[in-house]
Each structure stands twice: as C-alpha cells, then as structure tokens.
C-alpha cells in the first residue's frame, strides 16, 4: 500500500469520526432540551395536583368568590387536556393559571379565617415553592434550548443538523402582561 492510500484512509476515518462526534453532540443537546421541558411538565403536574385541595379549602371560607375559584379550576382542567407536544399553548395556559393563583392568594387577605387556616397556609407554601421550581425549570429549558440552537446555527454542526432534519426549538418567553410594572397604591 502506498503512502497516498494511507493518507486517504486516515482522512476518511477522521471525517467519519468528526461527523459522528458532531451528530452525537446534536443528539445530546436535543435530549437536554427535551429533558428540561419534562422538568417543566413535572412541576406543572405537581401544581395541578395541589390546586383541587387549595380550591376546596378556599371554598369553605370564600363562598362569594365563586367566579375566581371556577376560573382556576377551568384553567387547571384546560392545562391537563393540552396535547403534550403543544409547548406554546401549555405555557400560555400555565401563565394564566399562575395569575389566577395569585388572585386566590390575594383573596386570603379579605378572609382572615382563611389566611389563618393551616391547610391553606401549607397549600399556599407548596404552590409558591412549585411556582419557583417552574420558574427555575423554565430558565433551565431556555439555557438548554440556547445551547441546542447554537449548535444548529454554527459550522460544521449546522450542515449535519440540516442533513438529519434537526429543528430549532422556541424559547419560553414572558408574556407582555407579566412585563408590566405593577402599580403600587397607598
């Protein structure tokens, strides 16, 4: 075997190794992104499991706030029926549910007995912790999505991504309503 053939074989082996390495890094980035999304799903399920108990506890004290409670239950039910692949709709309804839960927590200020109720306090604390975990999971998802999208856009991984049909993922964004500065009145 002459030297030319040896050089060609080495180059081909190096190119195949580079191709496999880049393909695997794309797969890993996609898996991290999907795993990050599943963390959000886990926390949303946890919150959905806590909501019926919160609503039942609140009903006993705030009988006149029926509309607020029904809105929370409706959004919770809506969230559980969204197909798992529809991330945009999931986050939209989840944000609405977060706002509705804030309304219930604000309600407790008008009902001192409700505010003092141990079940309500524990549920409020659990939901607050869950909301914090959801926020962290969203942040993790966006970081994973950024890394994945970066690989889709940079050379040479963008070529391999295009060959294998890797698709860009959307970031989770804050709604315009959440960006508004709250008005504080005394």
UniProtKB/TrEMBL annotation:
Its main location: membrane. InterPro entries: LemA-like_dom_sf (IPR023353), MamQ_LemA (IPR007156). Signal peptide: none annotated. Gene3D superfamilies: LemA-like domain. It is found in: Membrane. Keywords: Coiled coil, Membrane, Transmembrane, Transmembrane helix. The chain crosses the membrane at residues 6-26. Pfam families: LemA. Residues 113-140 form a coiled coil. It comes from the Bacteria. SUPFAM superfamilies: LemA-like. It is a single-pass membrane protein. PANTHER family: MEMBRANE PROTEIN, PROTEIN LEMA. Belongs to the LemA family. This is Membrane protein. It comes from Lactobacillus xylocopicola.
């Amino acid at each position: 075997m002459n030297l030319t053939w040896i050089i060609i074989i080495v180059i081909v082996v190096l190119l195949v190794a580079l191709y496999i390495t880049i393909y695997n890094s794309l797969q890993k980035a996609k898996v991290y992104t999907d795993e990050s999304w599943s963390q959000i799903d886990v926390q949303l399920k946890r919150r959905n499991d806590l909501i019926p108990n919160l609503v039942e506890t609140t009903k006993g004290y705030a009988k006149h706030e029926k509309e607020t409670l029904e809105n929370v239950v409706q959004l919770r039910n809506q969230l559980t029926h969204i197909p798992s692949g529809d991330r945009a709709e999931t986050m939209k309804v989840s944000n609405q549910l977060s706002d509705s839960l804030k309304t219930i927590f604000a309600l407790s200020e008008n009902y001192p007995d409700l505010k003092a109720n141990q079940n309500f306090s524990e549920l409020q604390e659990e939901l607050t912790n869950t909301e914090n975990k959801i926020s962290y999971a969203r942040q993790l998802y966006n970081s994973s999505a950024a890394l994945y999208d970066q690989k889709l856009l940079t050379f040479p991984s963008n070529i391999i991504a295009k060959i294998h049909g890797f698709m860009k993922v959307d970031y989770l964004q804050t709604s315009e309503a959440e960006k508004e500065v709250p008005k504080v009145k005394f």
